[in-house]
Write a structure and sequence with these properties.
The chain has 842 residues and is of the alpha+beta class. It contains 27 helices and 43 strands. The chain folds into 5 domains: 2-141 and 277-340, FAD/NAD(P)-binding domain, CATH 3.50.50; 156-267, 3-Layer(bba) Sandwich (FAD/NAD(P)-binding domain); 346-485, Jelly Rolls, CATH 2.60.120; 507-637, Jelly Rolls; 647-840, no CATH class. A hairpin with a 5-residue loop joins strand 6 and strand 7. Residues 775-784 and 837-842 have low confidence and may be disordered. Pfam families: cNMP_binding, Fer4_11, Pyr_redox_3.
């Protein structure tokens, strides 16, 4: 529609072929009353058609009116059956098309591509001749189908036109993309309808909705979660369909099978390009993957000369992008070959500091073709991807990041070579990583500090991929997800076990390894069970417990990057302790027998595993030895450790604790915090929970994957060089971080006005003076002063939270100001250890 509108505006001979009796069938099929988003907001709209966020009906009305006004030549009920070139055969362009039937059989057909003009054959037999063709058919006409017994029953549908005509039904919505979420919310919106709506989500539940609903826009996902919390509908996490029958559906859940009532199933599980039709037009695809997109030039021209592909079929379905592409392609066809896409200035800024003179298109292709995980992306996907990523140039010898630095971004190497320093005391001991590969995946996956120092061994060009962009990449490009998972598994095992291992040594182990999602509280190893599997903690943390006197006693805390399970493999026998997830976690399960073969050929590795096993045995022996003589100390230590995990230490990187046997209630800690932060204290000493003598006040935990970062519109929340999570001055006071924090450590507060210069205060009495906290001063002004700079400051609020006193000499003020040493800041993997039990018992 946008392309045809611009052709009409330019006076070009054109025809818009619509297979139905109306315009914009995709939007037309949206459910009634649906709010249509106009994202991304920063992108300029170039189309001759108007488009702003609004109701489906209003948008369609404006488009219909504008199409008539522009006198667009529209041919309705004109479905295209085939497109073929009628010009000369293109030399060397015989194309093999592989068709795959549902039973798995394949048929290969060869076609010869011909140059334009093109003959378009309609289903009614009519033919249309065109010099150029713009293919903007999307993918919605080729929905992914459910593949389980009963999927062909009549109450299984892939579309919802009007949710308000569905009344008093038990409805299951399969799929948690935008379409599935909007359908589910529409069906559950009006309580009078009486619908019981269940949404099936294969992903585990997470406090970060981006992780639980990776393919949906965040506002949609948050609204769905809110509806679930309010009881308007039910989200079933980690649940899939096993079988369908009239009136019922059988689900596969984490706890087994479950059969529930079901009158209607709405499956919104995505769609795939109509490959047979597109390939029949002479258009090649980027790969054989079912979800691959056509191979396109930077101006969206396909491998068939004169056929352009835009919109969802080109790889990115946002409406504003599609409309801009329609405009741009017509401009190109009309001879404006110099027109740059609307996002060109943003991308030019991204590449400005890289060596060599390349255009944006050249850089995009260079990065895509030289970094293996990006190869499956289309040109359009690359443009969007790079808006969320950064291209960087590192000179030989430059440190990219240091061991123990915070960071969750992933790096792809486009050119050059980097070295991983495996010995901090010997810079010659390195592991090389060459062009095409990735590094930084451990920080991406676990959220922990960097595990090694990375140095540019040559001048190198890398792409730093933000965590958000990396998650999106993995959800949209299956080949990227598989590559990242395999590389990260292999590297984690090599780094963890060392002992001279090479990728070839553990190839079979990696091939058989399974990545498992573990709910908080779920057990991966049970004391007394048989089993030889080893578990590597990829994300989250685990706690190890042992039954002593009929009660579970806390033994140790295992952060991401640890492993467990080797005792039964090396020594044989039953499991000697239980291991369960402190928070939602991810583990790599390694086949014990395959790992045993590696141990047999690597004596140094076996010796390392034996040492680790001996440490665990000593811990078990210590607990056993103290169960009678110091049972109260053991019980106290165990219950205290469980309490701390429940208070968030399982995902913390730095937390403030107060020993109440030493605390005198002087509040020096709070006062010092306020003095260090313009009168705004980040600490509430009295709030929070206490167990025995240990108090956890209301103060930031600086989580591995901070909940507050999940939805910050201005991207104002960051990690500092010492791991602190802080909020910068771009905060707009929206309160999203406060709502997302599960520990209540963020508040919205007024921003105090800046202190005036000393002479202004001395001679004119302006503002607070030396020694007077700005916040006290601002509290005195309960009425507007008439001074805009002051009144605006009194109105504006921002998010306030602990920043670990970043940039202040001496470290956190709260700890330094405590006169009795009651306040301490700790890392959980150092604090939750059996060494504390030994100290307490001594």
């Amino acid at each position: 529609m946008s392309a045809a509108s611009h052709a009409a505006q330019l006076g070009l001979n054109h025809v818009l072929l619509e297979k139905t009796d109306h315009l914009s069938d995709t939007i037309y099929k949206y459910q009634k009353g649906k709010h249509v988003m106009a994202t991304p907001s920063q992108l300029v709209l170039r189309s001759d058609q108007e488009f702003d966020a609004g109701k489906r009906e209003d948008i369609l009305e404006r488009w219909n009116s504008r199409t008539s006004e522009l006198k667009v030549n529209v041919k309705y009920n004109a479905e295209v059956k085939a497109i073929r070139g009628t010009g000369p055969a293109i030399e060397g362009s015989v194309q093999k098309i592989v068709s795959r039937a549902r039973d798995g059989t394949t048929t290969t057909t060869e076609i010869q591509r011909h140059a334009p003009p093109y003959e378009l054959t309609l289903t009614n037999g009519e033919k249309v001749m065109a010099e150029t063709v713009i293919l903007a058919i999307g993918t919605q006409g080729n929905p992914n189908l459910m593949r389980c017994p009963g999927a062909d029953l009549p109450h299984v549908t892939y579309q919802l036109d009007d949710p308000y005509v569905v009344v008093d039904e038990h409805i299951v919505v399969v799929g948690t993309g935008d379409a599935g979420i909007e359908n589910a919310r529409g069906l559950a919106e009006d309580e009078v309808q009486g619908n019981v709506v269940t949404v099936l989500n294969r992903s585990p539940k997470s406090t970060n909705v981006r992780e639980s609903f990776a393919t949906a826009k965040e506002p949609n996902a948050k609204a769905l979660v809110d509806d679930d919390a309010a009881g308007r509908l039910t989200i079933r996490y980690e649940t899939e369909t096993k079988a369908i029958e009239p009136g019922w559906i059988t689900l596969t859940t984490r706890d087994g099978e479950e059969r529930i009532r079901c009158d209607r199933i709405i499956a919104r599980i995505g769609s795939a390009p109509p490959r047979a039709f597109v390939e029949g037009c002479g258009i090649e695809f980027a790969s054989s993957d079912r979800l691959a997109f056509p191979t396109l030039s930077p101006v969206f021209e396909s491998s068939a000369p004169g056929i352009f592909v835009i919109g969802a079929l080109a790889g990115y379905p946002l409406i504003k992008h599609c409309m801009n592409q329609g405009y741009d392609v017509v401009e190109f066809i009309n001879g404006n070959i110099g027109l740059k896409p609307a996002d060109e200035p943003l991308l030019e800024a991204k590449f400005r500091d890289l060596p060599g003179r390349r255009s944006v298109d050249e850089w995009l292709e260079y990065l895509r073709s030289n970094i293996s995980i990006l190869e499956g992306m289309t040109t359009l996907q690359m443009r969007e991807f790079m808006l969320d990523s950064d291209a960087r140039f590192y000179r030989k010898g430059e440190v990219i990041f240091e061991k123990n630095d915070p960071g969750s971004s992933l790096f792809g190497i486009a050119s050059g070579l980097v070295h991983v320093r495996i010995d901090p005391n010997d810079s010659s001991k390195v592991v090389p990583i060459g062009a095409g590969s990735i590094f930084g995946e451990v920080g991406l996956i676990s959220g922990r500090r960097r595990g090694a120092t990375i140095v540019a061994a040559e001048d190198s060009v890398c792409v730093e991929i933000s965590r958000t962009a990396a998650l999106k990449l993995q959800s949209q490009v299956p080949t990227a997800r598989k590559a990242i998972e395999r590389i990260s598994t292999e590297r984690q095992l090599l780094q963890m076990f060392g002992a001279g291992l090479t990728p070839d040594d553990i190839r079979e182990v990696v091939d058989d390894a399974k990545i498992m999602q573990i709910k908080a509280g779920d057990t991966i190893i049970k004391e007394g069970d048989e089993g030889k599997e080893i578990f590597v903690i990829r994300v989250g943390s685990m706690i190890v417990e042992k039954q002593v006197g009929g009660k579970p006693v806390f033994l140790s805390y295992l952060p991401a990057g640890s492993y467990v399970g080797e005792m039964a493999l090396i020594a044989g026998g039953q499991r000697t302790a239980s291991v369960r997830a402190a928070i939602k976690s991810e583990v790599i399960r390694i086949d014990g027998e395959k790992f045993e073969k590696v141990l047999e050929t690597k004596p140094a590795l076996l010796e390392r595993a034996r040492r680790d096993m001996d440490v665990r045995r000593q811990t078990n022996a210590l607990i056993e030895s103290k169960k009678d003589s110091l049972s109260s100390v053991v019980d106290l230590y165990s219950e205290q450790a469980k309490f701390l995990v429940a208070q968030g230490l399982g995902e913390a990187t730095d937390v403030l604790l107060i020993d109440e046997t030493l605390c005198v209630g002087c509040d020096n800690c709070e006062k010092a915090c306020a003095d260090s932060h313009d009168g705004l204290s980040r600490l509430d000493r009295e709030a929070g929970k206490t167990f025995a003598n240990l108090h956890v006040p209301t103060s930031c935990r600086h989580c591995e994957h901070p909940h507050c970062m999940a939805d910050c519109p201005p991207n104002a929340i960051h990690r500092g060089p010492d791991g602190e999570v802080f909020i910068n001055d771009t905060c707009i006071g929206c309160g999203n971080c406060q709502r997302n924090c599960p520990y209540g450590v963020i508040r919205m507060d007024k921003v105090p006005p800046k202190k005036p210069a000393l002479l202004s205060w001395l001679f004119f009495g302006a503002g607070p003076g030396p020694g007077e906290p700005s916040y006290k001063w601002s509290k005195k002004h309960t009425k507007y002063t008439g001074d805009p700079s002051i009144d605006e400051a009194l109105d504006r609020k921002k998010a306030i939270k602990c920043d670990m006193c970043a940039g202040i000499d001496g470290g956190p003020s709260c700890v330094r100001a405590c006169p009795t040493g009651a306040a301490i800041r700790v890392a959980p993997d150092e604090f939750l250890t059996v060494a504390r039990l030994e100290q307490e018992s001594a």
